[in-house]
Amino acid sequence: MEHPDIDFATVLASGVHDMKNSLCMLIQSMDLLQQELAEKSESASQELARIHYEATRLNTNLLQLLSLYRIEKDQLPLHMDEYNLDDLCDEILIKNGLYSTQRNIDVITDCPGKLSWFFDNDLISNLVNDMFVNALRYSNTKLLLRAFEQEQQLFVEIHDDGEGYPADMLDNSEEGIHNLNLAAGRTGLGLFFAHMIARAHRNQGRTGRIELSNGGEFGGAVFRLILP
Question: How far apart are CA 171 and CA 85, in angstroms?
Answer without folding.
Answer: 28
